[in-house]
Design a protein that fits this description.
The chain has one domain: TIM Barrel (Alpha-Beta Barrel), CATH 3.20.20. Helix 4 links the parallel strand 3 and strand 4. Helix 3 runs parallel beside helix 4, helix 4 crosses helix 6 and helix 8 runs parallel beside helix 11. It has twelve helices and eleven strands. By secondary structure, the protein is of the alpha/beta class. The strands form two sheets. It has an eight-stranded parallel beta barrel with strand order 1-2-3-4-7-8-9-11, surrounded by seven helices. Strands 5-6 form a two-stranded antiparallel sheet. Helices cover 45% and strands 17% of the residues.
Length: 313
C-alpha cells in the first residue's frame, strides 16, 4: 500500500524557545518539497499554545514550493468568521494550485483552551455546532453562486471570488475518536484525521466503525481518506527516546507528559520499532500520516521521515 507521510512544522516549538522569525519554518517547507515528502502541516492556537498563524504561513510556503501538500493540523475554525475563512482558504487554494488540506478539530476541553475561546468571544459549549455550520457555509460560498444564509451568521446575496482552485473547495478532514466524531467524518467530510489515543490497532477499530457509518449515510467509504496525527521520538537508545518524548509533551502542553501520552498516538524507540508501530496504522487502512517529531534537529528529522517512507513506497 502506498502511504503518504507528512511532517508537522515546529511553529509552536519555535515560539517556546523565543524564535518568532519565520525564515527557518519557510526553509523547512522548501526542504520537505525538495526531498519528496508528501505534506507539511501547521497547528493552530491563538493563546492556549501560542504559535504562528497557520493560514498565513501555509500561504507563504505555497508560494515558494511546487509539489508538496500543505495542511492544518488542526485548524480551530470556530475562532474565525466563516466568510473571511472561506475567502482566505479559497485564495490559499489558488496560491498552491490545489495543494491545500483543511484539517479541522473541535479542541480539547482544558482550561487554557476554554480561556482561548472566551477571549475570541466564542461559546465553547457550542463549538461543534458552530464548526459544522461554518463548514456548510464555506462550501456554499465556494460554489461561486449567490449565497443567502440565516443562522449564526447572516449572508445576503453573497458571491465569493475567487472560487477555489479545487472545485467545491479543498478537502476537509476532521478528527476525533468518539462515535459522534466518527459519524461527523463519515457523513460530512473528506477525511478522518484523529490524534489518538492508543495505537494503530485502536485506529483501525475506529476506522472500521467509521466506514460502517459512511455506508449508513449512503457514502462510499473509499471516498474518505483515513489519516492519523502521531508523535514520534527516534533514538537507538530507547530509554533516551522515552525520556525525550515525555519531556517534549510536558513542555509543549504544560501538563504531565505521561498524561498526554495516554491521550495521543505516541511512540518512542529505534527506527525499526517506530517503523513497526507506524505499520499498524498502514495495515489498518491509513493512507496518510502526519508525524510530529520530538527534539530540535528538524532537517535531520525530515530526512529520517523520508527514509521511513521508503518502507511503504
Amino acid at each position: 500500500m502506498t502511504l503518504s507521510l507528512g511532517y508537522l512544522l515546529p511553529t509552536r516549538e519555535r515560539i517556546m524557545v523565543g524564535v518568532h522569525e519565520t525564515g527557518q519554518i519557510l526553509k523547512l517547507g522548501d526542504h520537505a518539497d525538495n526531498i519528496g515528502l508528501d505534506s507539511v502541516w501547521i497547528g493552530d492556537s491563538l493563546l492556549a499554545k501560542p504559535r504562528h498563524d497557520p493560514l498565513s504561513l501555509i500561504s507563504a510556503i505555497a508560494g515558494r514550493t511546487e509539489k508538496i501538500q500543505m495542511g492544518t493540523a488542526v485548524l480551530l475554525p470556530m475562532l474565525r468568521n466563516p466568510v473571511l475563512l472561506a475567502h482566505q482558504v479559497s485564495t490559499m487554494d489558488h496560491i498552491s494550485e490545489g495543494r491545500i488540506i483543511l484539517g479541522i478539530g473541535t479542541a480539547r476541553d482544558v482550561p487554557a483552551i476554554r480561556n482561548e475561546f472566551e477571549a475570541a468571544g466564542v461559546p465553547f459549549e457550542k463549538r461543534i455546532g458552530t464548526m459544522l455550520e461554518q463548514m456548510r457555509l464555506c462550501r456554499a460560498l465556494w460554489t461561486g453562486e449567490k449565497t443567502d444564509w440565516e443562522g449564526r451568521w447572516t449572508v445576503k446575496g453573497a458571491e465569493l471570488a475567487p472560487v477555489p482552485y479545487t472545485k467545491g473547495g479543498p478537502p476537509i478532514w476532521s478528527g476525533g475518536g468518539v462515535p459522534a466524531a466518527l459519524k461527523r467524518s463519515a457523513r460530512y467530510f473528506d477525511g478522518w484525521f484523529p490524534s489518538g489515543p492508543g495505537n494503530g490497532k485502536n485506529w483501525s477499530e475506529s476506522w472500521n466503525e467509521l466506514q460502517g457509518y459512511a455506508r449508513e449515510a449512503n457514502r462510499d467509504p473509499a471516498d474518505i481518506v483515513g489519516a492519523a496525527y502521531v508523535t514520534v521520538a527516534i533514538n537507538d537508545d530507547v530509554a533516551k527516546a522515552e525520556a525525550e518524548l515525555i519531556e517534549y509533551l510536558t513542555s509543549y502542553y504544560l501538563r504531565p507528559g505521561e498524561e498526554i501520552r495516554d491521550q495521543q498516538y505516541c511512540v518512542a524507540g529505534d527506527r525499526n520499532a517506530v517503523t513497526d508501530w507506524l505499520n499498524e496504522f498502514v495495515e489498518g487502512g491509513a493512507s496518510h500520516i502526519c508525524v510530529r517529531f520530538t527534539g530540535s534537529e528538524d532537517q535531520k528529522q525530515m530526512d529520517e521521515l523520508a527514509r521511513l517512507r521508503e518502507a511503504w513506497n
